[in-house]
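Reminder: ligand-aware prediction takes two inputs, not one.
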Amino acid sequence: MSGELTRRNFLKTAAVGAAGVAAAGILGGSPFSARAEEAEAKAFEGKKKFAGIGSVRMVAEDVAYLGVSDRRIQLFENVYPIPRGVAYNSYLLLDEKTALVDTVDRSVTGQFFENLVAALDDRPLDYLIVNHMEPDHSSAISEVLVRYPDVKVVCTAAAAVILNQFFACDISDRAILVGEGDTLSTGKHTLTFVMAPMVHWPEVMMTYDDVHGILFSADAFGSFGALNGNLFADEVDFEKDWLPDARRYYCNIVGKYGDQVQAVLAKAGTVDIRMLCPTHGPVWRENLGWIIEKYSLWSSYTPEEPAVMVVYGSIYGGTESAANALAAKISHAGVVNVAVYDVSKTHVSELIGEAFRCSHIVLASITYNMGIFTPMKNFLLDLEAHNLQNRAFALVENGSWSPAAGGLMKEIIDRLKGASYVGDLVTILSSPDAKDAAALDALGEAVANSVLYGEAEATPAEEAAPARWVCKICGYVYEGDTVPEDYKCPLCGAGADMFEKEE
Ligand code: FEO
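Here is what comes back for the chain with MU-OXO-diiron:
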Protein backbone atom coordinates (compact mmCIF):
# COMPACT_ATOMS: atom_id res chain seq x y z
CA MET A 1 0.00 0.00 0.00
CA SER A 2 3.07 2.21 -0.05
CA GLY A 3 2.31 5.61 -1.57
CA GLU A 4 -1.44 5.11 -1.35
CA LEU A 5 -3.84 6.58 1.11
CA THR A 6 -5.23 3.61 3.02
CA ARG A 7 -8.99 3.47 3.63
CA ARG A 8 -8.33 3.93 7.35
CA ASN A 9 -6.30 7.09 6.83
CA PHE A 10 -8.69 8.30 4.15
CA LEU A 11 -11.59 8.13 6.59
CA LYS A 12 -9.51 9.84 9.26
CA THR A 13 -8.60 12.57 6.82
CA ALA A 14 -12.16 13.02 5.65
CA ALA A 15 -13.46 13.23 9.21
CA VAL A 16 -11.05 15.88 10.38
CA GLY A 17 -10.53 17.64 7.08
CA ALA A 18 -7.19 17.67 5.33
CA ALA A 19 -6.48 21.14 6.70
CA GLY A 20 -7.29 20.19 10.26
CA VAL A 21 -5.23 17.04 9.98
CA ALA A 22 -2.21 18.96 8.80
CA ALA A 23 -2.67 21.53 11.55
CA ALA A 24 -2.97 18.88 14.20
CA GLY A 25 0.07 17.06 12.90
CA ILE A 26 -1.80 13.78 12.64
CA LEU A 27 -0.08 12.91 9.38
CA GLY A 28 3.08 14.81 10.16
CA GLY A 29 6.16 12.94 8.93
CA SER A 30 4.13 10.52 6.84
CA PRO A 31 4.47 10.36 3.05
CA PHE A 32 1.05 11.95 2.87
CA SER A 33 1.78 15.17 4.76
CA ALA A 34 3.50 16.90 1.85
CA ARG A 35 0.65 15.94 -0.41
CA ALA A 36 -1.88 17.31 2.05
CA GLU A 37 -0.02 20.61 2.34
CA GLU A 38 0.24 20.90 -1.41
CA ALA A 39 -3.49 20.29 -1.82
CA GLU A 40 -4.16 22.76 0.94
CA ALA A 41 -2.19 25.52 -0.70
CA LYS A 42 -4.20 25.12 -3.88
CA ALA A 43 -7.54 24.83 -2.16
CA PHE A 44 -6.95 27.95 -0.08
CA GLU A 45 -5.33 30.05 -2.73
CA GLY A 46 -6.81 33.50 -2.29
CA LYS A 47 -8.31 32.17 0.96
CA LYS A 48 -11.54 31.31 -0.86
CA LYS A 49 -13.31 28.00 -0.72
CA PHE A 50 -15.57 28.88 -3.64
CA ALA A 51 -15.69 32.00 -5.73
CA GLY A 52 -18.19 34.27 -4.03
CA ILE A 53 -18.92 37.72 -2.76
CA GLY A 54 -19.74 36.97 0.87
CA SER A 55 -22.89 37.96 2.70
CA VAL A 56 -22.04 40.28 5.54
CA ARG A 57 -24.16 42.70 7.55
CA MET A 58 -22.83 45.15 10.07
CA VAL A 59 -24.06 44.80 13.63
CA ALA A 60 -22.27 48.02 14.57
CA GLU A 61 -19.85 50.21 12.61
CA ASP A 62 -16.91 47.92 13.41
CA VAL A 63 -18.69 44.64 14.14
CA ALA A 64 -19.64 42.42 11.21
CA TYR A 65 -22.14 39.56 11.19
CA LEU A 66 -20.66 36.57 9.35
CA GLY A 67 -23.28 33.97 10.27
CA VAL A 68 -24.86 31.56 7.82
CA SER A 69 -28.32 29.99 7.75
CA ASP A 70 -28.92 26.34 6.95
CA ARG A 71 -32.31 25.73 5.35
CA ARG A 72 -31.55 22.14 4.30
CA ILE A 73 -31.18 20.68 7.77
CA GLN A 74 -34.10 18.55 8.98
CA LEU A 75 -33.15 17.82 12.60
CA PHE A 76 -31.11 20.06 14.88
CA GLU A 77 -28.77 17.91 16.99
CA ASN A 78 -30.35 15.07 14.98
CA VAL A 79 -33.30 15.33 17.36
CA TYR A 80 -35.33 18.51 16.92
CA PRO A 81 -37.33 19.14 13.71
CA ILE A 82 -36.57 22.63 12.40
CA PRO A 83 -38.73 23.27 9.33
CA ARG A 84 -37.68 26.93 9.43
CA GLY A 85 -33.98 26.00 9.40
CA VAL A 86 -31.40 27.51 11.73
CA ALA A 87 -28.74 30.22 11.66
CA TYR A 88 -25.19 29.69 12.94
CA ASN A 89 -24.01 33.12 14.02
CA SER A 90 -20.45 34.36 13.97
CA TYR A 91 -19.19 37.91 14.44
CA LEU A 92 -16.04 39.79 13.52
CA LEU A 93 -14.74 42.75 15.50
CA LEU A 94 -12.75 45.06 13.23
CA ASP A 95 -10.77 47.07 15.76
CA GLU A 96 -7.02 47.83 15.63
CA LYS A 97 -6.79 44.10 16.10
CA THR A 98 -9.38 41.81 14.54
CA ALA A 99 -11.30 39.27 16.60
CA LEU A 100 -13.60 36.55 15.30
CA VAL A 101 -16.26 35.44 17.79
CA ASP A 102 -17.19 31.79 17.22
CA THR A 103 -17.47 29.99 13.87
CA VAL A 104 -20.18 27.83 12.31
CA ASP A 105 -21.42 24.31 11.71
CA ARG A 106 -19.61 22.15 9.17
CA SER A 107 -22.64 22.33 6.84
CA VAL A 108 -22.11 26.01 6.05
CA THR A 109 -18.35 26.58 6.09
CA GLY A 110 -18.23 27.52 2.39
CA GLN A 111 -20.40 30.60 2.83
CA PHE A 112 -18.77 31.33 6.20
CA PHE A 113 -15.27 31.63 4.75
CA GLU A 114 -16.58 33.77 1.91
CA ASN A 115 -17.98 36.07 4.58
CA LEU A 116 -14.81 36.06 6.65
CA VAL A 117 -12.58 36.82 3.66
CA ALA A 118 -14.91 39.62 2.52
CA ALA A 119 -15.16 41.18 5.98
CA LEU A 120 -11.43 41.02 6.70
CA ASP A 121 -10.66 42.59 3.33
CA ASP A 122 -7.04 41.37 3.43
CA ARG A 123 -6.49 42.32 7.06
CA PRO A 124 -4.94 39.63 9.25
CA LEU A 125 -7.05 37.75 11.78
CA ASP A 126 -5.56 38.33 15.22
CA TYR A 127 -7.92 36.54 17.62
CA LEU A 128 -10.47 33.76 17.49
CA ILE A 129 -12.71 33.87 20.55
CA VAL A 130 -14.36 30.52 21.29
CA ASN A 131 -17.38 31.14 23.48
CA HIS A 132 -18.81 27.65 22.97
CA MET A 133 -17.20 24.44 21.75
CA GLU A 134 -20.29 22.59 20.57
CA PRO A 135 -19.51 21.69 16.95
CA ASP A 136 -22.37 23.75 15.54
CA HIS A 137 -20.08 26.68 16.40
CA SER A 138 -16.62 25.16 16.34
CA SER A 139 -16.51 23.01 13.21
CA ALA A 140 -14.64 25.66 11.23
CA ILE A 141 -11.98 26.30 13.88
CA SER A 142 -9.33 23.92 12.56
CA GLU A 143 -9.68 25.44 9.10
CA VAL A 144 -9.43 28.95 10.56
CA LEU A 145 -6.17 27.92 12.22
CA VAL A 146 -4.75 26.71 8.92
CA ARG A 147 -5.86 29.76 6.95
CA TYR A 148 -4.66 32.20 9.61
CA PRO A 149 -1.62 30.54 11.22
CA ASP A 150 -0.84 33.56 13.43
CA VAL A 151 -4.29 33.75 15.00
CA LYS A 152 -4.47 33.43 18.80
CA VAL A 153 -7.31 31.38 20.24
CA VAL A 154 -9.06 32.88 23.27
CA CYS A 155 -11.09 30.36 25.24
CA THR A 156 -11.56 28.64 28.57
CA ALA A 157 -9.27 25.80 29.60
CA ALA A 158 -12.21 23.42 29.29
CA ALA A 159 -12.86 24.60 25.72
CA ALA A 160 -9.24 23.86 24.76
CA VAL A 161 -9.62 20.29 26.01
CA ILE A 162 -12.89 19.72 24.17
CA LEU A 163 -11.48 21.28 20.99
CA ASN A 164 -8.71 18.71 21.04
CA GLN A 165 -11.19 15.91 21.73
CA PHE A 166 -13.43 16.79 18.79
CA PHE A 167 -10.90 17.88 16.20
CA ALA A 168 -7.52 16.50 17.34
CA CYS A 169 -6.51 20.12 17.40
CA ASP A 170 -3.76 21.06 19.86
CA ILE A 171 -3.82 24.84 20.37
CA SER A 172 -1.35 24.96 23.27
CA ASP A 173 1.09 27.13 21.28
CA ARG A 174 -1.51 29.75 20.42
CA ALA A 175 -4.11 29.60 23.19
CA ILE A 176 -4.94 32.48 25.51
CA LEU A 177 -6.85 30.79 28.33
CA VAL A 178 -9.26 33.07 30.14
CA GLY A 179 -11.47 32.92 33.23
CA GLU A 180 -14.13 35.00 34.92
CA GLY A 181 -13.58 38.74 34.45
CA ASP A 182 -10.42 38.46 32.33
CA THR A 183 -10.12 41.12 29.64
CA LEU A 184 -8.58 41.51 26.21
CA SER A 185 -7.87 44.84 24.55
CA THR A 186 -8.18 44.98 20.77
CA GLY A 187 -7.41 48.69 20.55
CA LYS A 188 -10.44 50.86 21.19
CA HIS A 189 -12.43 47.93 22.55
CA THR A 190 -11.97 46.01 25.76
CA LEU A 191 -13.55 42.58 25.79
CA THR A 192 -14.49 41.05 29.14
CA PHE A 193 -15.08 37.33 29.49
CA VAL A 194 -17.98 36.11 31.59
CA MET A 195 -18.11 32.44 32.51
CA ALA A 196 -21.44 30.77 31.76
CA PRO A 197 -20.97 27.07 32.57
CA MET A 198 -23.79 24.79 31.43
CA VAL A 199 -25.38 27.44 29.25
CA HIS A 200 -25.26 25.11 27.56
CA TRP A 201 -22.02 23.11 27.99
CA PRO A 202 -19.49 23.35 30.85
CA GLU A 203 -16.87 25.31 28.88
CA VAL A 204 -19.22 28.12 27.82
CA MET A 205 -18.33 31.75 28.30
CA MET A 206 -19.82 34.99 27.04
CA THR A 207 -17.89 37.99 25.76
CA TYR A 208 -18.85 41.57 26.64
CA ASP A 209 -17.75 44.50 24.49
CA ASP A 210 -17.53 47.80 26.34
CA VAL A 211 -17.82 50.15 23.33
CA HIS A 212 -21.20 49.06 21.98
CA GLY A 213 -22.43 47.25 25.08
CA ILE A 214 -22.63 44.01 23.09
CA LEU A 215 -22.94 40.74 24.93
CA PHE A 216 -21.88 37.89 22.65
CA SER A 217 -24.09 35.47 24.54
CA ALA A 218 -23.30 32.06 23.02
CA ASP A 219 -26.45 29.89 22.93
CA ALA A 220 -28.37 32.13 25.33
CA PHE A 221 -31.06 34.27 23.68
CA GLY A 222 -30.84 32.10 20.56
CA SER A 223 -33.60 30.59 18.48
CA PHE A 224 -34.30 28.01 15.83
CA GLY A 225 -35.10 29.54 12.44
CA ALA A 226 -33.02 30.66 9.47
CA LEU A 227 -32.33 34.37 9.10
CA ASN A 228 -33.71 35.77 5.88
CA GLY A 229 -31.68 38.91 5.45
CA ASN A 230 -33.38 40.48 8.45
CA LEU A 231 -30.71 40.18 11.10
CA PHE A 232 -32.23 42.10 13.99
CA ALA A 233 -35.17 41.02 16.13
CA ASP A 234 -36.77 44.42 15.50
CA GLU A 235 -36.75 43.71 11.75
CA VAL A 236 -39.15 40.76 12.14
CA ASP A 237 -42.40 40.14 14.01
CA PHE A 238 -40.56 38.23 16.71
CA GLU A 239 -43.47 37.57 19.06
CA LYS A 240 -45.67 36.22 16.27
CA ASP A 241 -43.16 34.45 14.03
CA TRP A 242 -40.18 33.63 16.27
CA LEU A 243 -41.22 33.29 19.90
CA PRO A 244 -42.49 29.67 19.66
CA ASP A 245 -39.19 28.58 18.12
CA ALA A 246 -37.14 30.68 20.56
CA ARG A 247 -39.01 29.07 23.45
CA ARG A 248 -38.72 25.58 21.96
CA TYR A 249 -35.00 26.17 21.41
CA TYR A 250 -34.36 27.40 24.95
CA CYS A 251 -36.52 24.83 26.76
CA ASN A 252 -35.18 21.83 24.89
CA ILE A 253 -31.53 22.85 24.61
CA VAL A 254 -30.86 24.74 27.84
CA GLY A 255 -34.07 24.25 29.85
CA LYS A 256 -32.53 21.75 32.24
CA TYR A 257 -29.99 24.32 33.46
CA GLY A 258 -32.28 26.95 34.96
CA ASP A 259 -29.98 27.62 37.93
CA GLN A 260 -27.03 28.29 35.67
CA VAL A 261 -29.07 30.61 33.42
CA GLN A 262 -30.31 32.47 36.49
CA ALA A 263 -26.68 32.93 37.61
CA VAL A 264 -25.75 34.45 34.24
CA LEU A 265 -28.83 36.69 34.25
CA ALA A 266 -27.78 37.97 37.68
CA LYS A 267 -24.33 38.84 36.30
CA ALA A 268 -25.88 40.42 33.20
CA GLY A 269 -27.94 42.68 35.41
CA THR A 270 -24.75 44.39 36.61
CA VAL A 271 -23.49 45.53 33.19
CA ASP A 272 -24.82 47.93 30.58
CA ILE A 273 -25.95 45.57 27.82
CA ARG A 274 -27.23 47.35 24.72
CA MET A 275 -27.10 44.49 22.28
CA LEU A 276 -27.41 40.71 22.53
CA CYS A 277 -25.54 38.74 19.87
CA PRO A 278 -26.40 35.04 20.26
CA THR A 279 -25.05 32.12 18.27
CA HIS A 280 -28.46 31.36 16.71
CA GLY A 281 -31.34 33.55 15.59
CA PRO A 282 -31.80 37.31 15.46
CA VAL A 283 -29.61 39.92 17.15
CA TRP A 284 -31.28 42.05 19.84
CA ARG A 285 -30.66 45.80 19.80
CA GLU A 286 -34.09 47.01 20.97
CA ASN A 287 -36.45 45.97 23.72
CA LEU A 288 -33.85 43.71 25.34
CA GLY A 289 -35.86 43.63 28.55
CA TRP A 290 -38.63 41.70 26.77
CA ILE A 291 -36.48 38.70 25.83
CA ILE A 292 -34.53 38.85 29.11
CA GLU A 293 -37.85 38.66 30.97
CA LYS A 294 -38.80 35.56 28.94
CA TYR A 295 -35.48 33.99 29.94
CA SER A 296 -36.08 34.91 33.55
CA LEU A 297 -39.46 33.12 33.48
CA TRP A 298 -38.23 30.05 31.63
CA SER A 299 -35.10 29.61 33.72
CA SER A 300 -36.99 29.99 37.00
CA TYR A 301 -39.61 27.48 35.79
CA THR A 302 -42.31 30.09 36.18
CA PRO A 303 -45.23 29.62 33.77
CA GLU A 304 -45.04 32.18 30.99
CA GLU A 305 -48.80 32.69 31.15
CA PRO A 306 -51.89 31.27 32.84
CA ALA A 307 -52.82 28.80 30.13
CA VAL A 308 -53.88 25.19 29.61
CA MET A 309 -52.41 22.52 27.38
CA VAL A 310 -54.31 19.26 26.99
CA VAL A 311 -52.20 16.33 25.80
CA TYR A 312 -53.85 13.03 24.97
CA GLY A 313 -52.63 9.60 23.94
CA SER A 314 -55.41 7.63 22.25
CA ILE A 315 -55.66 4.59 19.98
CA TYR A 316 -59.33 4.07 19.19
CA GLY A 317 -60.67 7.52 20.06
CA GLY A 318 -62.11 7.11 23.57
CA THR A 319 -59.33 9.06 25.28
CA GLU A 320 -59.32 11.62 22.48
CA SER A 321 -63.07 12.11 22.97
CA ALA A 322 -62.51 12.67 26.70
CA ALA A 323 -59.74 15.20 26.00
CA ASN A 324 -61.96 17.09 23.56
CA ALA A 325 -64.82 17.19 26.09
CA LEU A 326 -62.46 18.43 28.76
CA ALA A 327 -61.01 21.14 26.51
CA ALA A 328 -64.51 22.29 25.59
CA LYS A 329 -65.53 22.49 29.25
CA ILE A 330 -62.38 24.43 30.21
CA SER A 331 -62.99 26.80 27.32
CA HIS A 332 -66.71 27.18 28.15
CA ALA A 333 -65.72 28.11 31.69
CA GLY A 334 -63.80 31.11 30.34
CA VAL A 335 -60.23 30.00 29.64
CA VAL A 336 -59.01 31.27 26.27
CA ASN A 337 -56.40 29.78 23.95
CA VAL A 338 -56.70 26.22 25.24
CA ALA A 339 -54.16 24.11 23.32
CA VAL A 340 -54.89 20.43 22.56
CA TYR A 341 -52.21 18.03 21.33
CA ASP A 342 -52.19 14.42 20.16
CA VAL A 343 -49.05 13.12 21.86
CA SER A 344 -48.52 10.56 19.09
CA LYS A 345 -48.13 13.08 16.30
CA THR A 346 -46.76 16.15 18.06
CA HIS A 347 -42.99 16.20 18.35
CA VAL A 348 -42.00 16.06 21.98
CA SER A 349 -39.90 19.22 21.62
CA GLU A 350 -43.11 21.14 20.77
CA LEU A 351 -44.76 19.71 23.88
CA ILE A 352 -41.76 20.65 26.05
CA GLY A 353 -41.92 24.22 24.75
CA GLU A 354 -45.64 24.42 25.47
CA ALA A 355 -45.16 22.96 28.95
CA PHE A 356 -42.75 25.79 29.75
CA ARG A 357 -45.38 28.29 28.48
CA CYS A 358 -48.50 26.93 30.20
CA SER A 359 -49.40 26.98 33.87
CA HIS A 360 -51.70 23.93 33.62
CA ILE A 361 -51.05 20.60 31.94
CA VAL A 362 -53.89 18.13 31.42
CA LEU A 363 -52.81 14.60 30.53
CA ALA A 364 -55.13 11.90 29.20
CA SER A 365 -53.55 8.53 28.50
CA ILE A 366 -54.64 5.06 27.67
CA THR A 367 -53.08 2.17 29.55
CA TYR A 368 -50.65 0.29 27.34
CA ASN A 369 -48.86 -2.93 28.30
CA MET A 370 -50.03 -2.20 31.84
CA GLY A 371 -48.15 1.09 31.68
CA ILE A 372 -48.45 4.60 30.31
CA PHE A 373 -49.00 4.92 26.53
CA THR A 374 -45.44 4.96 25.18
CA PRO A 375 -45.38 8.47 23.61
CA MET A 376 -47.03 9.91 26.73
CA LYS A 377 -44.46 8.24 28.96
CA ASN A 378 -41.71 9.61 26.73
CA PHE A 379 -43.18 13.12 27.08
CA LEU A 380 -43.37 12.84 30.87
CA LEU A 381 -39.82 11.54 31.16
CA ASP A 382 -38.66 14.37 28.90
CA LEU A 383 -40.42 16.87 31.18
CA GLU A 384 -38.49 15.37 34.08
CA ALA A 385 -35.22 15.43 32.11
CA HIS A 386 -35.78 19.13 31.39
CA ASN A 387 -36.40 19.81 35.07
CA LEU A 388 -39.87 21.34 34.59
CA GLN A 389 -41.20 22.69 37.87
CA ASN A 390 -44.15 24.52 39.40
CA ARG A 391 -46.95 23.26 37.17
CA ALA A 392 -50.50 22.15 37.98
CA PHE A 393 -51.57 18.83 36.47
CA ALA A 394 -54.94 17.17 35.86
CA LEU A 395 -55.15 13.51 34.88
CA VAL A 396 -57.40 11.24 32.86
CA GLU A 397 -56.71 7.53 32.34
CA ASN A 398 -58.32 4.95 30.12
CA GLY A 399 -58.14 1.17 30.10
CA SER A 400 -60.51 -1.48 28.80
CA TRP A 401 -59.89 -3.98 31.60
CA SER A 402 -57.27 -2.68 34.04
CA PRO A 403 -56.68 1.08 33.81
CA ALA A 404 -53.34 1.99 35.42
CA ALA A 405 -51.92 4.96 33.48
CA GLY A 406 -53.16 7.58 35.97
CA GLY A 407 -51.20 6.33 38.96
CA LEU A 408 -48.13 5.73 36.83
CA MET A 409 -48.25 9.25 35.37
CA LYS A 410 -48.58 10.58 38.91
CA GLU A 411 -45.44 8.69 39.95
CA ILE A 412 -43.40 10.64 37.39
CA ILE A 413 -45.14 13.96 38.07
CA ASP A 414 -44.51 13.58 41.82
CA ARG A 415 -40.79 13.78 41.03
CA LEU A 416 -41.20 17.24 39.46
CA LYS A 417 -40.41 19.99 41.93
CA GLY A 418 -43.40 22.16 42.81
CA ALA A 419 -45.91 19.98 40.92
CA SER A 420 -49.51 20.13 42.09
CA TYR A 421 -52.77 18.51 41.05
CA VAL A 422 -56.15 19.93 40.18
CA GLY A 423 -59.37 17.90 40.49
CA ASP A 424 -59.76 14.15 40.70
CA LEU A 425 -58.34 11.53 38.38
CA VAL A 426 -61.00 10.53 35.84
CA THR A 427 -60.97 6.86 34.87
CA ILE A 428 -62.60 5.76 31.62
CA LEU A 429 -63.27 2.22 30.52
CA SER A 430 -62.77 2.13 26.73
CA SER A 431 -65.14 4.98 25.80
CA PRO A 432 -66.48 7.78 28.02
CA ASP A 433 -70.10 7.31 29.17
CA ALA A 434 -72.57 9.63 30.92
CA LYS A 435 -70.91 9.10 34.30
CA ASP A 436 -67.53 9.96 32.79
CA ALA A 437 -69.02 13.06 31.15
CA ALA A 438 -70.02 14.36 34.57
CA ALA A 439 -66.57 13.62 35.98
CA LEU A 440 -64.92 15.33 33.02
CA ASP A 441 -67.21 18.33 33.51
CA ALA A 442 -66.15 18.57 37.14
CA LEU A 443 -62.48 18.22 36.24
CA GLY A 444 -62.78 20.85 33.50
CA GLU A 445 -64.41 23.25 35.92
CA ALA A 446 -61.71 22.66 38.52
CA VAL A 447 -58.97 23.30 35.93
CA ALA A 448 -60.69 26.48 34.72
CA ASN A 449 -61.13 27.78 38.27
CA SER A 450 -57.50 27.07 39.00
CA VAL A 451 -56.35 28.93 35.87
CA LEU A 452 -58.71 31.86 36.30
CA TYR A 453 -58.77 32.23 40.07
CA GLY A 454 -55.69 30.36 41.25
CA GLU A 455 -57.65 27.62 42.99
CA ALA A 456 -55.65 24.39 43.31
CA GLU A 457 -57.15 21.48 45.17
CA ALA A 458 -54.42 19.04 45.97
CA THR A 459 -50.72 19.68 46.25
CA PRO A 460 -48.10 17.08 47.13
CA ALA A 461 -46.70 17.69 50.59
CA GLU A 462 -43.78 20.09 50.40
CA GLU A 463 -40.71 18.73 52.06
CA ALA A 464 -38.44 21.08 53.99
CA ALA A 465 -36.12 22.71 51.46
CA PRO A 466 -32.75 20.89 51.54
CA ALA A 467 -29.41 22.73 51.56
CA ARG A 468 -28.07 23.57 48.10
CA TRP A 469 -24.44 22.95 47.14
CA VAL A 470 -23.15 24.56 43.94
CA CYS A 471 -20.39 23.02 41.81
CA LYS A 472 -17.66 25.64 41.38
CA ILE A 473 -16.77 24.22 37.97
CA CYS A 474 -20.09 24.03 36.20
CA GLY A 475 -22.74 25.43 38.56
CA TYR A 476 -24.60 22.15 39.05
CA VAL A 477 -26.67 22.20 42.24
CA TYR A 478 -26.63 19.24 44.65
CA GLU A 479 -29.39 19.22 47.24
CA GLY A 480 -28.85 17.58 50.64
CA ASP A 481 -27.46 18.18 54.11
CA THR A 482 -23.91 17.40 52.99
CA VAL A 483 -22.23 16.34 49.76
CA PRO A 484 -21.11 12.70 50.10
CA GLU A 485 -17.31 12.35 50.03
CA ASP A 486 -17.33 10.11 46.97
CA TYR A 487 -19.83 12.26 45.10
CA LYS A 488 -19.01 13.23 41.53
CA CYS A 489 -20.78 16.08 39.76
CA PRO A 490 -23.04 14.46 37.14
CA LEU A 491 -22.39 17.34 34.74
CA CYS A 492 -18.63 17.90 34.89
CA GLY A 493 -17.28 15.08 37.07
CA ALA A 494 -15.84 17.38 39.78
CA GLY A 495 -15.44 15.85 43.24
CA ALA A 496 -17.25 16.74 46.45
CA ASP A 497 -14.53 19.26 47.43
CA MET A 498 -15.55 21.46 44.49
CA PHE A 499 -19.04 22.06 45.93
CA GLU A 500 -19.80 25.21 47.90
CA LYS A 501 -22.87 25.65 50.08
CA GLU A 502 -25.27 28.25 48.71
CA GLU A 503 -26.11 30.87 51.33
FE1 FEO B 1 -25.60 26.07 19.46
FE2 FEO B 1 -24.81 24.48 22.36
O1 FEO B 1 -24.60 24.93 20.58
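The CA atoms of residues 401 and 460 lie 29 Å apart. The pocket of MU-OXO-diiron is lined by residues 132, 134, 136-137, 200-201, 219, 279-280 (CB under 6 Å). We will return to this case in the review session.
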